[in-house]
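2024-03-11 09:14:02 DEBUG pipeline.ingest accepted 1 chain
2024-03-11 09:14:02 DEBUG pipeline.ingest length=356
2024-03-11 09:14:03 DEBUG pipeline.predict start
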Amino acid sequence: MIHLFGYSITFYVFLATVFGIGLLVFIHELGHFLMAKKFKIRVEQFAFGFGPEIIGFTYGDTRYSICAIPLGGFVKMPGEDVSSATGSPDEFMSQPWHRRLIIAFFGPLMNYILAVVIFTVVFYFWGFSVPSEKPVIGDIMDGYPAKVAGLASGDIVRKINGTATNTWEQMADLIHKSALTKVRIDILRDGKEFAFSITPSKDPVSNAGIIGIAPMIETRKVTLGGSFVLGVKMVVFQTVYTIKYLGMKIIHWEKPEVAGPIGVVQLLAKAAKSGIENLLHFLAVISVALGLFNLFPIPLVDGGHIMLALIEAATRKPLNKTAVQASNFVGLTIIVFIFIFATYSDLARMGLKFLK
């Protein structure tokens, strides 16, 4: 048993968590590596993991390594930093703007491809979970009227104020119209009928009546083609949702809820403990997040390289080394700030309120 960030986890869960993170970063770097090789850019080292090399071999100009810390990987190309570029034709910065853009883009693209593959596998082997259309109570939220009144998971709602409810939508509509007004709810439980008198709370956003219940979840089998379509839709949904969420937080100048390294490890460990399906699903979600973050136009990350390549394409002039170095410094500052903010958010959620 290993104690990590407040969790007691087995060695299997620890390995699944560590190698899960390593896989996502390795696949990302593999995208850069494949494009670099395609454009005949010299790759000095392609490694899985960080730290001291455990095992490796040299083939051509490239050293292939497996390193001691399996938390990712890296591709080392000469001339990646404008200050170290010599102008040699096999260096990264010596390439035309469109090649640099493709090399930078293929890292995030590989994360998106991996996410689609993982989601497809999950949907094909475990099915697709959807809310049931039947008026059967699934989850009940603590502190809400349904929980207080004594409703239970598995209860079948037969009537509301004498009106028969044949679907979840019909039942929910009757409750939504009864905010702060007492309603009679007739249910069927273990073959016996019961009646409850409940006053729905008012949702502060929609003003609809709510009692704190959710429908039962049904699992539907999906074909391989259907699983792929759902996988693509999930990737699009995760991307759009994240962009909208961050956009709203910026517009309203609110602090976003983000997970840093500690939070990601905690969530991965929790997913690994609950089964391979949840672990794979969460790895796909993180893969989308990793790909999306690297597309943001922040200097030093892939999106920054893409932005610089597009600027060079628009101006039709070589990049100014001083300007690139200045933008890299700004990018490093942004990345360090994000890392510190995310890590502090993780610690705050763990109850370590050391900053007052």
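2024-03-11 09:14:41 DEBUG pipeline.report The longest strand covers residues 45-59.
2024-03-11 09:14:41 DEBUG pipeline.predict end
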